[in-house]
Records
---
Amino acid sequence: MSVHNHLLRTAREQLPSLLVPGACASRAEVAEAVNRNQFLTGAFGVGAGALVAPPADDSMDPTAAVSAPTAHYRRLESTVATGQLARAVEAHLGLATEAVARHDSRAGHAALAEAAGLAAWLAADRHDTGTARRRYRTAIEHAERADHDLLTAYMRGSLGQFAVETGDINQGLRLLARTADELPQRAPDAARAWLASLRAQGLADQGNADQSRRALRHAEELAGRDRAEVAWPWLFPFGIAKTARHQADTFARLGDARAARDAYESAGVTLAAPKPRAMAQLAQARVRAGAGRVDEGCRFAAAALRVGHAYGSERILAGVRNFRATLPSRSVETAELDTAITELYEGDSW
């Protein structure tokens, strides 16, 4: 079977499972799901040739055929159930690995780095930290074999972010600092703003408030230069609104309730997708509860819990459980959240 036909069959097999059950979603999210279904049907059905057009000769380098789906999977990540999407990405990574093994090239290793990096992100969302760490290391290795310094920086920075998020703060900050030092001069401002924002979060977790705020200001300056270029592998703009999203999380970690709330409101459109919005809601839950507004914090956490359950994000569910562990025993303020967590284990009224 040709690379093209194998890829197309894999995509079609995964298509029916890529939608979150409607019972778990709001009306707006059901509409989003329908739109995603239409996109996937077009991408892997009638329009498949545009995405994964077969090479004229199967002996030719199939990199173009195996690299395009990764970008589309990345765009679906924030709104598609993690488990279903992970299976599609892992199958795609396996196919890509076989194809590149037969046609060793820099472009092929770049395609593998992207696929492995996405697989790592999805493993982290499932809370499978061992797999996530291995996939990130694989992604870095392939990026280095591709001899692409921007791609290597993206993957090493992503591993640094993962380390911070899983509690290995010193290792994460070391990786982020190394990535920033090794960025080439041509690196886009988006890359530097992203790294500064991630560093700010790690410094906040470390308890270094002054350096964390300086890193946030640096990120904001970079994002505000009006150079909105998006350079691969940074597929998404990292402007003021995206910076505000990271600010909201960082200020929450620093316990600055007012700044976190203002940044949350400024993040705007970047929180339209369910999973990013849920992560921001978790940050708001922590900061509001810390300011004595436990009932507001629990409402934010309950909303995040619903999204975590619907989209199979253990990252979000673990965040909710950790938040609840910081609160006193049962009270009127925590009743709704306690009920939702209990149902997660004992029932399914979602």
---
Amino acid sequence: MTQMITKVLPFEVKEVDRRVLEFVGSTEDKDRQGDVIMANGWQLKQYKKNPVFLWSHQYNEPPIGKAINVWAEDGKLKFHIKFAEKDEYEFADTIYRLYKGGYLRASSVGFLPLKSEPIEEAKDDEVIFGQPTRYLKQELLELSGCPVPANPNALAEAKAKGLIKDELPFLPALVVDKDEDEDVSKPYPNEHSCRLKDPGKYDRFARKNCEQKHDGKCIDVIYGIKEEKTEIQALRYKKDIWTESAAKSHCASRDGTFEAAGGEESEKETYKCECIDCGYKIESDKHCNELKCPKCGASYITEEIAVDKMARTEKMIEEK
């Protein structure tokens, strides 16, 4: 099945009407993955039926604006975005002012690849991971505003001027200096943490909510940033979505270091065990097959298996 691909593109932004900004971005230069999107390959018909402008691909949140025009020309994808009024959606007004002030200079496109071809290997001065792809034909599904690659110093200045408020929901997704967020590598009271890399090696961090999914459940991603290199540093699992055991299991599959929500000690699983020979029962945090009966020295089996074994024995007696 073809999956949606998202790409962050740096854009030139200018105001063309009241609360309407024009985004002009070149899409035929290689991105950090070495991929190229051909501007004349954009299929826009389906997007124009529902031309919403989201924030950071948050599909469960209201759109911050709508595209009143979108087109491709001169090797560029262009669109006019009309932002919601302040009295309609205050958060949308903040994003509008950040774009207008130059604090945000990027957007993200979500699309379905319809036709593509591999690109030749990277040049000597390029660092590319995986097989670079040239997208020749692609269907635009959605547009989103996003902070990357916004300058963290500019964002700090925006906050100082009162353009960003601490309680705004998008703030955790912004790039932050490590000194300004000492708890970035620690779990919060409402989420579990999976550390994949040492946070001490990075200068700053960025968070993307619901960046990954597993079994339909969202996983937030913490990116570590060192100079121009960005990589996944940690995963976060919201407590109201993920049980501790499920989060711990997923973290183990990624070879990560797990920490339960709030830094509390992880709950231990307990097993009900029954001796094979004498029937002596105990509960333990060790699996039954690792135990020896303190009464007769025999091995243990789980209570559930013992019950099943007893039922089968009784059935055999009845048949005889």
---
Amino acid sequence: MNHKIERRQFLTKTGLTMAGGALAMAPVLASANSTDTTALEKAAQQFLQSLDNLDWEPFVASWAANPTIFFPFDNTPERVDGKSAINARFRTFFDQVRTKAEGPPYLKLKPNNLKVERFGDAGLITFTLGGLSSVGGLSGKMGRRTVLFVLENREWKVAHLHASSAGA
């Protein structure tokens, strides 16, 4: 299938639109249907886009009230708890990436095998990232990502991110 057609279908399915060559984002409000994954997929795409572009404000706004994360970095092997600790670690990462890469997008994330599952007020997004760039210190490795979203005030927010890498 043509990549432009695939992209257009994905954007239509997730509710994203193109505006002057850039993705336009609207608030990601959940529907009343507990099996509908449209808003969840849109929230995941917005989260990934803000990370890829190192767009701080939307990135920080994507997180739940009390999130946790496992980073894929050797220098952060423990679970990181809470917004302030997560923001501090990501702020360092964003600053490091900006000095080494041109962008946006900076990370050039290309999620593969994206799977979206909804379980009432929780949603699970899993995917892989092939051939990670050297920017994040993970060159040549395959990234594995699991993102747990929860509904907070009718919006999908990231409650937990588990990021690991495999391969050499």
